[in-house]
Amino acid sequence: MRFLLRHTTTYRYANPVTFGRHRLMLRPRDSHEMRLHEATLAITPTPSQTVWQYDVFGNSIALVDFAEPASALVIESTLDVERFPFVATEYMVAEHARNLPLAYSADEIRDLAGLQERHVPDPEHAIDLWAKGFLTVADETPGLPETLPVLNAMAAAIRGTFTYVPRDAYGTQSPLETLQSGSGTCRDFAYLMMEGARSLGLAARFVSGYIYDPGRDEAADAPAVEGGGATHAWAQIYLPGAGWMHIDPTNALVSDGALIPVAIVRDPAQASPVSGSWEGKAEDGLGLEVEVSVTRKD
Questions:
Q1: Positive or negative: CA dihedral 56, 61, 63, 69
Q2: Contact 3/294 with Cβ under 8 angstroms?
Q3: What single string gives the DSSP state of each residue in 71-131?
Q4: What pTM value is reported for the model?
């Protein structure tokens, strides 16, 4: 499927303020799963300098500087992308990885170590116990729990038993808080899924991007999709043979073509689409508006 994405971020101020450097993560990587046909970035006021670079994960980053004060900052990203999902990932999982616990090879462990270790203290083992509860999903079949059914059950449980609550504020709540409250936004659910998978010995990454919601585009009777009309977040889990699998616990989707990745990182805090600073009176800040649209392109 080919998509047209528009992401506009607007900051407003009561009086002109001075802008510090802004860091933008809005341009996806061109790859075998997604072709980037065109990417444009329009910024008002006009930057004095824009420098492109790659971060430690290989994500495309724009560093933007400004010379003149202004009472508004508007950043508009427009993307024309084509998504090529691999629909048979489950058949590619290596034989030794089809059941849990699985062991990564020595070479894989060397590269996955920082992504496999737990990131959040869990002194009462609440996430451990929650995640290990999904190991019983294969009780009716002999042998060890199957890896993919366990991950699917975890994603389905988040989708079915947790309450999705959109939140405009920056930051991601702790997986422990999400587990205790039974609610959160897509990035909270992704972080919980990551920590749950890590507690089972699996390597996990955080993905920031977009999701296509047909109900917002052309099919009013399409199934409900959470996270449309805004940036979206989900997890990637590494399974030998299949590689990095996209898993969206907010919608219980696995490697789905409706997911459009932009930034892939170790920790959610590393994936802010727009970050930066400004100088002025505290009361000058009037707020932030974000508009996102994802439409099919014929």
A1: negative
A2: yes
A3: EEEEEEEEEEEEE---TTGGGGS-GGGSBSS----HHHHHHHHHHHS--S--TT-HHHHHH
A4: 0.94
Distance in angstroms (rounded) separating the CA atoms of residues 184 and 84: 29
Q: Give me the average pLDDT of each 10-residue run along the chain (298 residues).
A: 96 98 96 95 98 97 98 98 80 92 94 95 96 77 84 96 86 94 96 98 98 79 79 97 95 90 97 96 95 91
User: Any idea what the Cα angle at residue 271 is, between residues 267 and 275, rounded to 5°?
Assistant: 130
Residue 216: CA atoms inside 13 Å, Cβ hemisphere, count? 16
Give dist(CA 112, CA 83) in Å, integer.
Answer: 26
The token duo for 22 is 């802004």
- Residue 184 tokens, joined: 């959160």
